[in-house]
Write a structure and sequence with these properties.
- By secondary structure, the protein is of the alpha+beta class.
- It has helices spanning 14-19, 28-49, 121-157, 162-194, 243-250; strands at 60-66, 72-84, 87-91, 96-101, 108-109, 114-118, 197-199, 204-209, 216-217, 222-228, 232-238, 256-260, 269-270, 272-276, 287-293, 303-313, 317-320, 325-327, 330-337, 342-347, 349-354, 357-361, 368-372, 383-385.
Length: 407
């Protein structure tokens, strides 16, 4: 007689099928046992196919720096230029066509030296006309003077009245005034003829050429710019929010210093504020600042750097741009715990910038922070200090050049 089974066991549980009695109906107890075993197997299979735990983050090498115990005030640098204190824009005092220019850019000039010349033909003709007018006025005056003297004798003899003598006297005085006027006009025309030559009135150097031969210029049109020999100024521009800082720095000793770009090895020398513009430039919206330079041997036009040192502050520390990142919408740095070699974010407040460095508050000297590579790290991640080849192995970190905001 063929055997029958009331329950068909799954192929995934052959062991349970072997313990079921054959040829008889499986009781309720056996059904519950079979169902429980099947569920347990399913749980094991699903657990084996689930997501595995992520591996631990690898230890990354990072550059770190130790904050130095130097307190600081904000220090700012401005690009400046060395200029002469007096720079004249020389021009002709009369109109005319420029015939020649006798100096070039950079030429050294002396007092009385001719710089340029215009066509003086019309001026010479006007001078000759003025001379002729003087001659005519003098002849007229002399004639009326002789007549007046004769009329005086006639009046004494009683041949003319006193009124006639007074008319002759008035005519002579008018002729005398006309003569004086003609002579003054002649002097003016003589000066006008001399103004055809542009002459330097002080020693200096030519810093600009504004007109060339062949141009017809009006009186007062700039032709040559000459920087007079003498005191030198350092000229630079600042924005509106830095005007008060310039005044405050100028009030302190060594608050303003200058360093010439051509002399990189020399120490910055102090300068004295001489002039601060009262109004902003209409184009750049900056205020022009002029400071007195003590060194008179500096060449005109040299480029310099003006260093402005602000009020000292114990909480302001300078950090490289790569050390500051954003964490939860705020500026922060990664603080390194030397004991566990893990990093944690530390909020900071950015109060200024100096070149490629940021001035921040919220840190204390002696802290060790991640200087680069913080954007790829997570809070609590273990790191290792990066050591360039040839440096000592792992030990106490060497301070990096991250000083507080004053040098």
């Amino acid at each position: 007689m063929p055997q029958r089974s009331l329950v068909s066991l799954p192929a995934a549980a052959p062991g349970l099928a072997s313990i079921a009695p054959s040829g008889r109906a499986v009781s309720g107890t056996w059904k519950r046992a079979l169902a429980g075993g099947t569920a347990a197997i399913a749980v094991v299979v699903l657990a084996a196919c689930g997501k595995q735990a992520p591996p631990p983050e690898p230890e990354r090498y990072v550059r770190t720096l130790v904050l130095t115990p130097q307190s600081a005030g904000l220090q700012r640098e401005f690009a400046a230029e060395v200029r002469a204190r007096v720079e004249s824009r020389l021009s002709f005092r009369v109109a005319g066509k420029i015939l020649e220019r006798r100096v070039d850019l950079g030429s050294v000039v002396k007092p009385g030296q001719t710089l340029a010349r215009i066509d003086s033909s019309d001026l010479v003709l006007a001078q000759e006309a003025a001379k002729a007018s003087v001659l005519a006025a003098r002849v007229n005056r002399d004639q009326l003077g002789a007549d007046y003297r004769r009329y005086i004798d006639l009046h004494r003899q009683g041949f003319i009245s006193a009124a006639e003598l007074d008319r002759r006297d008035a005519a002579f005085k008018a002729a005398q005034a006309q003569y004086e006027s003609a002579r003054a006009q002649s002097d003016v025309q003589r000066n006008q003829a001399q103004y055809s030559s542009l002459v330097a009135d002080a020693p200096g150097v030519v810093t600009g050429i504004d007109a060339e031969p062949g141009m017809v210029v009006a009186a007062g049109t700039p032709v040559v710019r000459v920087a007079n020999d003498g005191p030198r100024d350092v000229v630079f521009s600042v924005s509106e929010d830095q005007v008060a800082l310039v005044r405050a720095a100028a009030a302190r000793p060594d608050g303003l210093k200058v360093r010439l770009w051509a002399d990189t090895k020399a120490e910055p020398q102090p300068i004295k504020l001489r002039e601060l513009a009262a109004a902003a430039d209409p184009v750049t919206r900056t205020f022009l600042v002029k400071a007195e330079l003590n060194d008179q041997n500096v060449r005109l036009g040299q480029t310099a750097t003006v260093i402005l040192t602000g009020t000292p502050s114990d909480n302001a520390i300078k950090l490289p741009l790569s050390a500051v990142m954003e964490s939860q919408g705020k500026s922060a740095v990664l603080l390194l715990d030397p004991k566990t070699m893990t990093v944690q974010p530390r909020p900071v407040t950015v109060v200024g910038a100096e070149g490629n460095e940021l001035v921040v508050q919220g840190l204390t000297p002696g802290m060790e922070i991640v200087a680069a590579g913080g954007h790829v790290l997570t809070p609590g991640q273990k790191v290792k200090r990066f050591r360039p080849p040839g440096t000592p192995t792992e030990g106490s970190p060497s301070p990096a050049p991250a000083a507080a905001a004053s040098r």
